[in-house]
Structures are given as structure tokens and as C-alpha cells.
Amino acid sequence: MRRRIAGPWFGVLLWGVAVTVSAMSDQADEQAGRLVAQMTPAEKIAQLQSAAPAIPRLGVPAYDWWSEGLHGFARHGDATVFPQAIGLAASWDPALLHAVGGVVAAQAREHFMAAGLRKDHGRYNGLTLWSPNINIFRDPRWGRGQETYGEDPRLTAALGVAFIEGLQGDDAAHPTVIATPKHFAVHSGPEPGRHGFDVDVSPHDLEDTYLPAFRAAIVDARAGSIMCAYNAIRGVPACASPWLLGERLRGDWGFKGFVVTDCDAVDDMTAFHHYRKDNAGSSASALRAGADLNCGVAYDGLRSALAGGQISGRDLDAAAIRLFASRYRLGMFDASAPRLPDDPVADRALALRAAGESMVLLKNRANTLPLKADTRIAVIGPNADALSVLEANYHGTARDPVTPLQGMQRQFGAKHVLYAQGATLAEGVPVPVPGTALRAGQGGDVPGLKGEYFQSVSFSGRPSATRIDRTVDMDTDHLPPEEHLDGRGYAVRWTGQLLPPGPGDYTLFVRVDRCFDCRGHDPVRLYLDGRLISATSGDKESPSAKVHVDDVRPHDLRLEWQHTGEDQGIHLQWIAPEDAQLAEAKRVVDAADVVVAFVGLSPDVEGEELKVDVPGFLGGDRTDIGLPPTQQRLLETAAGRGKPLVVVLMSGSAVAMTWARDHADAILAAWYPGEQGGTAIAQTLAGVLNPAGRLPVTFYRDARDLPPFIDYGMRGRTYRYFQGEPLYAFGDGLSYTTFAYDAPRLSARQLRAGEPLGVTVDVRNTGTRRGDEVVQVYLAYPDATDAPRRALVGFQRVSLAAGEQRAVPFHLDSRALSLVDAEGVRAVREGRYELFVGGRQPTAGQAPVTFTITGHADLPR
């Protein structure tokens, strides 16, 4: 296993002596204070911006504070890509989140040390990770909900605490990295208006829903930093709110770390919130409120603010000292800081475990699953062989990712797996040109294209490597497609034939993943039958090329790519005629025993502030929560052939699979499952893995069942306040085995306010195979106003062999037993309570155990 930087030994290794956390904290503050005292005001202001420049005279190297680690160390090359955060949440396994956080942190430190301890470190090469995202996923239409741990405050808090502790390590004085929970606070879309949105949230919803996970991240996990949000709260931008950053964060919660703004949030205060007339005023407001670090350059306005008396030198010193104290605690100025051994095999195994634990089986009629080993399987769907649905957003570069198609071929044997893409993702949204439509070489029958890789960007000389690429669908961010290539410049030429599945109008695209704020972009040229049909022009994207074909004969194809800048990948994509794709799907379905359809969404249509405006999607958010019509028609076509239909949903959010619920034989939610996702899906379908994931969000039937997207009130949202009948409920998930529960036992049936409650339940595996069960404890409040219908107050994921029984204990403290009133006051209140324990939310007719609380006890904010 990887050796984590955690425990007192790391402090000894870095600093030579073992001391208490508080003493080291004081020492770091003192060191930072002495350093900052030697800086000029201009130098201090420059250090309060994310791309902090070097100060050679003081021996301070340049450091960009912006690094990412949402579900793997991101955007700096080779790193393990774990399931997207929503998939990790579906595991309901804090121990898994802790382990994943440890690997993310260790890989971040490895990249940092590889660049050199006292060297300049650019963006995405630091030890301050702007993760996790612990906003509440209040509405399935939000495109960035995939980055969160779902809709429930307690689940989010528990998983967030585990991940943060995994990132930072066991020694608070010497963190492996510093975690940055975000976006503080009340931030969850819509994306198109996020830069100027003002949330008028009630005191009850603020305390009951939006703040608990942040409180846990600071009070329990002791996160070293926090990111304030773009939006305003009741008219005051979050990054300029003295109440939020001062009274609540530093006062009530005792936060000692640094606050960073979301990127360009200070500019937004001027340009969109119109909070101040210029960036000098906005910067002064943010700094005085407690925002130490500005992601962006708006804090240049602090020069004018200082000259005009809007801020003082002490304001600059306080922020700068907090920042440099963090760098000292991270060991950035200590020459003895170690490099860490890497264990790629263990990391890959953890990625597979994480993907496997994230699988949620929603339907399994007549035990359709697991599939038999010798079954002929038709694999269809736009997500069956696409890299993007493995990696999601905020990801590293996976060296050997396994798509679902590859996983199925390896698990069941290539001769047993037939494949047809079958559909585009949505109307007007391209997908990778599949290997079935590509042939390498004249007259050949080898799927894919011949790729010639040149060390020269001008294609001069002989290629240094030649290979067959199944598709052109590559992530090359800081990692060239061939190890011997210089990542700063190379060229690739792909040749072969395009084999259309049928006549009709095709649109071809070459999408290059553009780098953010970097020099130049990569030239690409696409030729069909010897004619140039698409090429880049300056910094613009390659234009699409419309092609009409009257038959299915092969057409010569050539794609040339010159990697000259910092762009991060290349993808040959198309929109094929629907009739031709459906006809191809029918052919493979007719030749198979069972159909496995990989459908859903992708990070190309749901995500952060995307430039997407097609039916069902807008700016990264969704306007329709159903399955896109192109894919729905594919499912209906497949089902019409009379074969068993297994639907694998790959998405970052809930999709209203109403037709599939009624007509499919099995449904598996696989999320965006990371680099080992294809293996985990195939092993789950084969029964090698027994699914035990649970939904971290409610699957609604229709967006019309929800309040308006812009309404941040919780009434009618999430399982806690939704009064309707969901398609699938928060906490749902099936297994290939069965479990039975005895009646829960309580430590007492009457409590005084402030006393904890012990709950124990006996759970046994009544099936014939080992499986995991997620034991869930819900509290209902029949006598309380302003209360949720029910609330998760405890959960544990346990593994039981066939026939095994185990007593599963829970400790419900005062906060778990508390309620928030209309004024936002949290307290343990007198009344009668109902408790339900099981593998899902309480069902109709399930009898609760009851207890009463006497008295009243207010809780700390």
C-alpha cells in the first residue's frame, strides 16, 4: 500500500522535532509574521492573489494556490481518476472516502516534490487543493451537482469530513495537503446566473440544510481553508459578508485557516452584483470581511484601497500571515521534505473498489442479473465507449482507463460482445466516432485508425511509434499519448477509412480540449477522400463538416494534429443519422441474447458554465430531467426486438427513467465511475461484484414536480421535504442477496434534552452470497413544526457473509436529535419522536420505535 504522509513521524521527518499541534501552529504563525514583516505593501498585495509571484530577495518562490483534487489529483498529468464525487457518495462509505483522500493528497505531494521543493510552482502543481465541493445538491437540474455528495446534510457532512481528513492526514500541524471545502455558502445553480445571483434564503433553511456540512468540515475535520461563493446572500456577496466569514466562520466555528474567493468572485462583486463601484472598493470589502486570498487579479485594487484608507496595513498583514503560515505548515520552505513512494497497483485497486462500491442496482426483474458467462451480449448506447463519462470534470489524466465496452469485452470475452453506438447523446450533441465506423488501412477489417506518432511537430522524419487506435478520444493533459514523446510538442497523423453504418447526412467534428488561460492552441486538419473538410483557424475551434453519403462504402480518412501548445486532448466526433444508427443497433440486438444499453448524460452537457444550448440543456444545467429523446428512442427500439434489456445509467445527476422503470428488466446507476469504471460495471453485471450502493439523491419523475430552479427554499425539495412520490427514493439500492432486520433496541425510551441516544439493530444476510448492506437510521418528528418529513441521522455500510448476523450500533448525539426553528435556532426540543432502521427509507406500514425527549437544550451554531 502507499505510505501516507500522516502521523507524528511526518512532522519529525520534515522539521526534525516532534511538538504539539498548538505549538507548531504558533511556530508557523511566528515564522509567517517575521517573513511578512519584511515585505513591502506591494509585495503583500501580490501575495494575496492566487498566482503569487516570487520574492527573490526573501527566498520566496512563486506559488499558484490553485490546485484541484475533487476525485483525484487533477489537471496536472498522470493521476488516479476515481469516480466522480456523486459516485463516491453513492458508496455511503466514509472509510472509502478517507482512503481516496489519502491517495489524492499523496499524489499531489508527489507532483509537487517532483517539480522541486524551492522551485516555482504553477497552477495545479500545489498543495492547496480546492476540494471537496460540499454544497447541497438541492435540484437535479444543477449541472455541477455531480461534484457534490448529494442532497442530504448528514450524508454530505460525514463523507466530507472523511475526505478532508484523508486529504490533510492525521497530523494537523503538518498536513499532507490543505483541503478547501467549497462553495461557502448556499450555492447550487443555476449556472448561467451564478456570477450575480442573490439568494434570499430563510434562516431555517440556512441552518437546517445549507450550513451543516460546512460546520462539520471546519469544526470536526478542521479544514485548513475554505472557498467563498460567487452568489450573494440576502444582498451581500458571500465573499464580502462579515456575518458569514467573520461571525459564523471565525467566531462561532473557530476557523483558523485562510479564506479563498471563488475565481474572479471579487470582479463579480463589481461587474454583476454592483456591490461597489470599482475593484478597489470590492477588494477592500472582501479583505475586511475575511477573504484572505483572491483567485484572480482583482486584489490589485487593494493598492488604491490602501492609498485611499479603505484598508489598513494590519488588514494586509493578517491575510498574508494566514497564507504564509499555511505554506510553513505544509513544509514548503524545508529542504528535508520527503518524496513519497508510489504504488500504482494499489491506487488502481482502490479506484476499482471505489467504482464497485458506487454501483446502485435499482431494478432486477426476475433476477436478470447477474448475466451468465456464455451470454451473447449486445452493447449499445452513446456512453458505452466514451472517455468523458469515465473522467467527468475536475479530473486527472488516467493512463489506462477502461470504458464500459472494454470492460464487457474483457469480462465476457470479445466474441460474446457485439457493439453498436446506436444514438447520439442528445439532439445536436456529438459523440466519439466509434471503432465500428473506423478501419485501419486500405481494405482492412481492423477496427480503428492507424496512428503515426512523430517527435517533430512538422511531421518530419519517420514516426517514432505506429499503432492502431480504436478511436480518437484522448486525454493528453500533461501526459503525451506515447511515453517517449516530449509533451511540449509532437504530432500525430491518423489514417484509415470511415465506414458509415448507413446512408444519410453526417456531421464530423474534431474537438480539441482547450487549455484555460494558456499560450496558443493546437492546429488540426481533417481530410475525407483526400479533401480538407475541417481545420483550425487561429484560436478558434475546428469547424464542423457536413457530409452526405449515399451508401456504406468506406471513405478515406486522415486526421493530422500538431500539439504545439498546452491543449489537453483530441476527440474525433460525429452526429450520425438516427435511422442509420438505429438500424445498426437492431442488427446487433437481433444477434444477441441480452441487451446492455449504456445511456445517460455526459460532462459535455452537464457541468460548470458550459457553452451548451440544445433541447434539454442550458449553460451546463438541465431544463428537462428525462432521458434525452435520442436515447429514449434507442431503448424503445432495442426493447421492441424482444430481448431482455439491462439499462446502465451513466450520469452525474438523477435522470427520470420512467420508461425504463416500467419496461427494462434491470437498471444499474453507474454515475461517472472513474478510470476503472468499465471493469467495475462489467464485474457487477457478471456478479463478480455484488452491488450495494445507495442513491445520494432523489430521482424525481418530472421537473414539474419541483419548485422553480431559482428558488432556494427547501419546501418541496429532497426527500426531507418532498411530498410527492419519487421515481426512486434517496437511499434506494438493491443487492444480489437479501437482508433481514430485527427490531431496533434503544438505550432509553425517554431522554432529557442534551442526552445521547444509543441504537442497536441486528442485521443478517438471508441470501446465499456475501454482500454489503447500508444500514440507515431515519428520524421522524410527528409533533414538531418546521421539521422535515424525516431525516437521516445515522448510517453504516457493513459486509456480511451468507447467513451471518451482526449487531450494528449507532450513537445519536444532540446534534443528530436536534431541530431548527423558523428563526434558525438549532436545539433539542421536547416531544415524541419516531425512529426507523432499515436498508432504505421507511416504507408504508413499517412500524417505528418511539421515544420522547423532555426539556430543551440550545446547541452551538
From TrEMBL:
Key words, A-Z: Hydrolase, Signal
A GO term for molecular function: xylan 1,4-beta-xylosidase activity
Domain named PA14: residues: 444-588
InterPro entries, per the entry: BXL, Fn3-like, GH, Glyco_hydro_3_C, Glyco_hydro_3_C_sf, Glyco_hydro_3_N, Glyco_hydro_3_N_sf, Ig-like_fold
Tagged with keyword Magnesium: no
Presence of keyword Hydrolase: yes
Example GO biological process: xylan catabolic process
Record-stated family: Belongs to the glycosyl hydrolase 3 family.
The protein's name in its UniProt record: Glycoside hydrolase family 3
Organism: Dyella japonica A8
